[in-house]
Structure formats: C-alpha cells, structure tokens
C-alpha cells in the first residue's frame, strides 16, 4: 500500500520503519528535519506526503499537533484522495478526534483513531497493540498495516472510542505505577531489602504488567525515556478533561497529577514517567538506593 507517515518521534519512526520492512511504499514527514527512515521517501510537507497515499498515518504529540498536521498550512487534508484513510495513533482528546473525523469525512476520506500501547520497545519490535475506533469495514482494510507494526489490533467501537479506551488504560498505568513507587518508598524508609520484596511482588496478586516492565529500570535507576513524563502528564490532563466532560470524578488521578507537577518542576519532564519515584523519595527523605 502507499502510505504517508507523519511524525517520526519515539514511536512513529520505528512504526514507519516496520511498514517499510513489510514491503509497503512509505513517504515520511517530520516537523523537525534530520530524521530519516531507511527505504522510505522524505516529504517537505504533510500535504506533499499525502499525495496519492491510500493511507495517511499520524503519530504526533498532542491535539494541537494533529490539527496542524491535518488542517494547517500545507496540511495533509489538502491533498487527501477521496478513498483515503487517515489513521491517527496520537493520544488526544476523544471529542477532538470526533471533530477531526467529521472534517476528514467531509472530504470523502475516512478517519480512524488507533492509539497504541506497548511503549518504545513494542514499536521497535513490531509488537504494539492498536486500540481502534473505526467503522468495521475500514478496520478490516487496515489489517495488513496493523500486522506490520503490531501483535494485535482491537476495535472497541466507532471513532473516538479507541481514544476513550486508551485514556482509561493509561489511567490504570499511571495509578498502578504510582502505587508501586509509593510502596517502594515506604518499604525503603523502613529498611526493607528491595530484592526479596520484588520476589514477593512477582509471586503475589499485586503483580502486574506495569510492575514487570518497569521494575528492572527502576531497580537499576535507569530513567531513560521509554514514555517521557511530559507525554504521560499530557495524557493525565486529557483523562481529567474527559472526566470533566463526562461528569466523572477521578480523585486518585488528581493526586497523581500533583505528583507529576512536582516532578516536572524538579526537571524530570524528559525522563521516563517512572522518575516520579525520585520525587516521592525526595519528599520522604529516602536515599536513591
């Protein structure tokens, strides 16, 4: 298939590379210059990338960026084919995505929200999980592309529902990790050796995928960004806004938001969100080790 891939960040670049590896004809664009994808053609603008593309795939940072890449000066919508599919793997507000879908469909194309879970390693290994809001027939057409970049694609409903599900899942990730981080700080403050504690966690009902994935990085004090704190904090704000729009109370997440605010003020924005642990340690007078 002829694909325009827009956004070559931590997730987008390996996703585009996996599409090339699967034999698709890929044209790429990124806001900042200098990023290349082996075997793909570069484009000067989103509109240029989208010319004659059967699928236009976005993976950018936030709602504003999606709108600009699609509808701004030289935006991809200017050159969409009538039968094209726009797929957005950015994590943005569901209500905004629904509005973008309406504007794209007015041009005769279709729109899909397909945020992902699996982090940087999943993008690099082609093991992402796509959480999809789309018409069934459009979802079916995209199966070869989902297969090239991921291990699974789950359609959860019409447009906007993929993002709604993704925000709910990220809410669980944020709360689960903060619970883990607080537990480590309390245990360390009381002099508990973390090695046997981790063995207990891995054998008990408190074990989780979040803990399994993050624990090795935390224990080695490696906070290199797999999912930067600034992006998780952005997602937390999306969750809180979606909750406000739908009359839902999220008191636990509001507390986590305050931890993130403090951690970002401490200079951790570009580190992995797991670096919130250091903020809790600092507040509790716990040494790093």
Write a compact overview of the structure shown.
This protein is an alpha/beta fold and 289 residues long. The protein is built from 13 helices and nine strands.
Task: Using brief descriptors, characterize the structure shown.
289 residues; Rossmann fold; N-(1-d-carboxylethyl)-l-norvaline Dehydrogenase, domain 2; six-stranded parallel beta sheet; three-stranded mixed beta sheet; elongated
Produce the secondary structure layout:
Elements: E1 2-6, H1 12-21, E2 25-29, E3 41-42, H2 46-50, E4 55-58, H3 63-71, E5 85-88, H4 94-105, E6 110-113, E7 116-117, H5 119-125, E8 128-133, H6 136-141, H7 143-149, E9 150-157, H8 161-189, H9 194-203, H10 209-219, H11 229-246, H12 251-265, H13 276-284
Parallel strand pairs: 1-2, 1-4, 2-3, 4-5, 5-6, 8-9
Antiparallel strand pairs: 7-8
Helix pairs in contact: 1-5, 8-11, 8-13, 11-12, 12-13
Number of strands: 9
| CATH class type of the largest domain | Alpha Beta
Q: In the CATH scheme, what's the topology name of the largest domain?
A: Rossmann fold
Give the averaged pLDDT, no decimals: 96
Helix content: 40-55%
Structural description of this entry:
This protein is α/β, with parallel strands linked by helices. It folds into two domains: 2-157, Rossmann fold (3-Layer(aba) Sandwich); 164-284, N-(1-d-carboxylethyl)-l-norvaline Dehydrogenase, domain 2, CATH 1.10.1040. It is 51% helix and 14% strand. Strand 4, helix 3 and strand 5 form a beta-alpha-beta unit.
